[in-house]
Amino acid sequence: MSSLRHPGPHAGSGCRPERLPTLLDESRQELAERGWTLIRGVPFLRHGVPGERMVLDFASCFGVPSARDGGRALWPVAPVPEPPAATLSARTGPTGFHTDAQYHAEPEDYVCLFGVRPAADGGETRLLRYDAAVAALQERGDGPELLAALCLPIWRWQLPAAFAATTATALSAPTAALAGGGRIRWRSDNLEPPAQLPPDMATRIDAAFEHAAGSVSLALEPADVLVIDNHRVMHARTAFSDPRRLLLRVRLWESA
Q: Sign of the C-alpha dihedral, residues 223, 76, 122, 111?
């Protein structure tokens, strides 16, 4: 695994009220240019407990919160004893690079992650931009085959069981995983493998992403907020077993 540890653009600066307008402008610009931004010291915790209204208000600075999956906009990312099938947010352990809501005809534009309690034994967030993902595929001997396959409109994903009762807009037709304009849609563990492709293709794609030279690793601390462009940047996490690890996730539509 090739990865760069990144302290974040606003590490140590905090989110002082007088700096908030400037900080938000800088963060939005960084999100537009790079595809992700990390803000430290956001005051959404009181004695370690997150305030739901404060979380949603801050997330709303970057877009419109979406509640179409699970019927709520704010979703805990924490291991549970019996995780719902195909729901990465309810498991311990590592996850591969993926985008959120890939099973929808149109995934949300942004993913906002709020750090509450880091794991004692890993659980770092990893990021991989579209350009770095494509470069990692191009470096492989089978890269042309993988890239060509990802551009075909043949990919489908299963709806996570946890959302089945509340979601009526699952992906209705196969789509390309690599679309025009630097957009990517990917997740392998709930993938419906295309019958016309070799059965090991998703594994080979995951291996290329896992070893990509351009990935970035971030340790989300309490009061950190990470905003990710869900079309241009995949995210993953390193292995952990600490059951107390807790992030909060809000998916966002781009503001009109």
A: negative
Inter-residue contact 250 to 75 (CB < 8 Å): yes
- Both tokens assigned to 246: 């807790």
Place of tokens 């985008």: 99
The position carrying tokens 């877009």 is 63
Determine how many CB atoms are found less than 10 A away from the CB of residue 207: 15
Q: Any residues with CB less than 8 A from the CB of 231 and at least 6 apart, and which?
A: 99, 107, 109, 182, 183, 184, 185
Instruction: Check whether 103 has a pLDDT greater than 60.
Output: yes
pLDDT over 70 (residue 43):
yes
The set of residues, in sequence order, having a beta carbon less than 8 Å from that of 96 and lying 6+ positions away, is 187, 188, 189, 206, 209, 210, 236
pLDDT of residue 206 exceeding 90? yes
Q: Taking residues 238-252, what's their average pLDDT?
A: 97
Which residues make Cβ contacts (< 8 Å) with residue 195, sequence separation at least 6?
Answer: none
Alpha helix ranges (H) inside the chain: 20-34, 52-59, 130-138, 143-150, 201-210
Torsion over CA: 239, 156, 127, 100 (sign):
negative
Chain mean pLDDT for the chain: 90
